[in-house]
Amino acid sequence: MIELNSLLTTKRKFEKAKLIKVFSFIAALLVLFSFMAIFLFIIIKGLPKLSLNFIFGKNTARIPTISAPIFNTLTIIFFTLLIAVPIGVFTAITLTEYLKRGNKFVEIVKIATETLSGIPSIIYALFGMVFFVKFLGWGYSLKAGICTLSIMILPTIIRSTEDSIKSVPDILREASYGLGAGKLRTVSKVIIPAASKGILASVILSIGRIVGESAAVLFTAGSSLNAGPNFLNSQGATLAVSMYLLIERGGTIEYAYTAALVLLFCVVIINIFSTYIGKRFGEKYDQNI
C-alpha cells in the first residue's frame, strides 16, 4: 500500500512537471510570436519609404529625413550613460560593499530607488522641464534631456548592479582578502568583473528605455527635426519623438513607420554589440580565474 501511494505521488509530480514544461514552452512561443509579428509588421510598413536620403539627407518641408534625430538619439544615449552608469554603479557598490546591512541610510536609498523606479515617465518629463529648462534656464536642449533621462534610468542601473554584486560568492571576497588585497582592489579586480554581466544587462535595459522615451525628451530636448548649431545647447528630437512629429506635422505615417524601422534596427545592433562585449568580459574573467 505504501509503495502504491509512493508511485501515485511520483506520477503526480511527473505530470505536474510535464504540465509546467508545456506551459513554459507555450509562453516562450507566444513571446517569440509577438516579437516576430511586431518585427515583420514594422519591416513591411517601413521598407517602402526607406532610402539613403531619408536616413542621411537634409530635412525639408516636402521630404522629411531623420539624420538629425539619429544623431540626437546617439548623442543622448552616449552622454546619458556617461552620467548615469558611473553614479549608479558606484552607488550600488557603496550600498553593498561599504555600508553594513541594515544601515538606515541604505534603507532610505533603497526606498528612494524603488520609488523612482515606479514614477511614470511624464513626471520625469515635467520635473525636467520645470527644473532644467525653466529654473536653470537651459531652455529646450539636448543637455536638459540628457540630465532628465540620467535621473530616469538611475534606479534600473542601481538595482540591477546591486543584485549582481550580491550574487557574487563570498568565497571570492574571502580569497582576495586572504591573498592580502584591500577593499578597493577586491572591489575593482574581483567583484566588478564578476558582476559585469549584470551591470551590462542594466546598461542594455537603460538603452532600451532611452531610445523608447518620448515624453521626457519632448518636454526637455524639444521637437526640432533639424540639427542645432550649438550641439548640447540646441534642441532636437530623437527617433522616438520624430515618429510622432512626422505624423503630427505632415500626416506622413509612412515615414513614421520607416523611422520606427530604423529605430528598431538601431536597438538590435546596440543589443548585439553590448552582448558581444559582455561575453568578452565574461570570457576574460573566466580565464583569469
Task: Write up this protein.
The protein is mainly α. The protein contains 12 helices and no strands. Helix 6 runs antiparallel to helix 9 (196-212). The longest helix has 45 residues, at 2-46. The termini are far apart. The model has no long low-confidence stretch (mean pLDDT 83).
Write the layout of secondary structure elements.
Layout lengths: L1 H45 L5 H5 L10 H32 L5 H15 L2 H15 L6 H25 L3 H9 L4 H12 L1 H17 L2 H6 L18 H12 L2 H36 L1
Unreliable spans: none
Distance between the termini: 53 Å
The portion of residues assigned to helices is over 70%
Rg, alpha carbons: 24 Å
- Fourth-tier CATH superfamily name of the domain at 88-288: MetI-like
Strand content range: under 5%
Summed up:
The chain has twelve helices and no strands. With 289 residues, it is mainly α.
Essential attributes:
single chain; 289 residues; mainly alpha; MetI-like fold; 79% helix
